[in-house]
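Example A, followed by Example B.
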Amino acid sequence: MVDKTAVWERIRRYAGSDFRTATDLPFTYAVPGNFLRIAREGREINRSLSRTNFEKAMDAMPAAAPSDFSDRQGPSTTRGRAHSR
């Protein structure tokens, strides 16, 4: 069983770091609460990804591709961060 609280804390710890989506797009994120705010090229995009979104994605792990999370918000970002466990 995955410790979802530990994974979320790891996601919070890496906020501000540089990442890449499965399609190699660079991004960073902030965690101002129980959600992520994504930024690309220094600009925040108009989307937040909730902690619940990631917890549901963890239940679907392992995932081979972002399309495995097509029912989640931000599948490329979700897959990349869910793999951080």
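Example B, a separate protein, is given below in the same form.
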Amino acid sequence: MSENNEIVLRKFRDVKTGEEFDLKTAFIERVIPVPTPVSVPLYVNGELIPEEELRKLDLEIVGYTQEQLDTVYYAELYAGNPDLIPRVRQYRDYLDDLSLPYDATTDQIDAALQAREDLDAAGRLELAARIRTAFQDIVVNLEACGCMTANYEAWLQMPKLVKYLPAEPQPDTAEPEPDTAEPQPEDD
């Protein structure tokens, strides 16, 4: 290479101003826009700002049905308290057996028990105790979730507790694999 074409000095050059400075320069001053979090009001004089203003803020308004809210709420409730699932199923089965709605009152349950002609008095008492125990187990689970009025909430929410029960696991219906082992000779 020719010595006249070889680069012997390197410098920084400011593209905007043309100013040059040494490569050993540790830093320069620049005005750089720094993102700063600010509180942007979404309401002005008690009124929601227009939708075009919301879009500029990358916001949109979404709506949820009660069904959507319940689906999420009960899924989280069951996920956070898996012992609740078999207890609600057991209580549901008792009410189904008595042909009662899931928000049945104790009076309705007692009347249905008294109408059971297939049970003697001791059998009705035993079934009543099982139903009360199943209900109380649900109350205990709701208390564990922090529900302050669990006894009332258990009764009030029972139709939805049943409606949003996770699906019961289905037994494996796969065909058993044929025995492919070699037959062993029998000992005489």
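On Example B: The two ends are 97 Å apart (CA to CA).
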